[in-house]
Amino acid sequence: xxxxxxxxxxxxxxxxxxxxxxxxxxxxxxxxxxxxxxxxxxxxxxxxxxxxxxxxxxxxxxxxxxxxxxxxxxxxxxxxxxxxxxxxxxxxxxxxxxxxxxxxxxxxxxxxxxxxxxxxxxxxxxxxxxxxxxxxxxxxxxxxxxxxxxxxxxxxxxxxxxxxxxxxxxxxxxxxxxxxxxxxxxxxxxxxxxxxxxxxxxxxxxxxxxxxxxxxxxxxxxxxxxxxxxxxxxxxxxxxxxxxxxxxxxxxxxxxxxxxxxxxxxxxxxxxxxxxxxxxxxxxxxxxxxxxxxxxxxxxxxxxxxxxxxxxxxxxxxxxxxxxxxxxxxxxxxxxxxxxxxxxxxxx
Length: 348
Hints:
single chain; alpha+beta; Phosphorylase Kinase, domain 1; Transferase(Phosphotransferase), domain 1; 2 domains; five-stranded antiparallel β-sheet; 14% strand; globular
């Protein structure tokens, strides 16, 4: 847990903070037109638009999420009353980000400011120079295989580290995906991972009747009536990210039984049989088992284990990885142990 701090508390603190900027908020529209260039990129989830603002004075570029005031309201409490069934909570997103910034958490963006005019609330963070991991996958020139595994390994080490550290401070993200992991360059040219969009996050490790995240990333236990472990659900989603980074494809479209033939095949026959029978999207005449290294297949299989009690963990202190019946940790797998400073950190 966050030492007694709740998501609602954090959202309330942010609301208090931004209300003190009221004199600046109404000037945002004129600032945007006179000193910034604002370009909407694409519709986001819910009712948000994501764009960029470039400050002409020093060419500082920020990513700006624009949310309608009629939807986001004036704070977490009012939003909860107006949208009680919403799975995505924008003030929780802002509150989590502010709290993680205060902790000095390295794998999130800095909250640069919150602005508001008569129609919209704007949340500003630094712009990721290389976009998100979905963009990386769509534009990756290296085909699946040994070289690509070496390229993605440093990035996946950071992804797994970020998810693990979130769990260690009591946060389950519940919307881990390619789209919610940003990529930017460090000063040394290497990749730097940033996790975004905490609107579905929770401080409860045990959840029930709450299906969260994108369909392809949802742990199958979310679709049952039993209580599920939100940390293990995050780990499952991280496994889907790894699969997609390695193959430029998803293992399935949905994890609800009877909704996707690929998922049903794995449920019936297992992951090893699936990769023997499934061809690569990027090389349609080649089967997955022919291009992925055995050590990566082993890791992906453990992360995508359909039974949560047998799924790999990320070494979190809440899981027993030492005892005779302990849970396997991804960090103990051969593919992860190959990560070292000599591996390429190239982005493409």
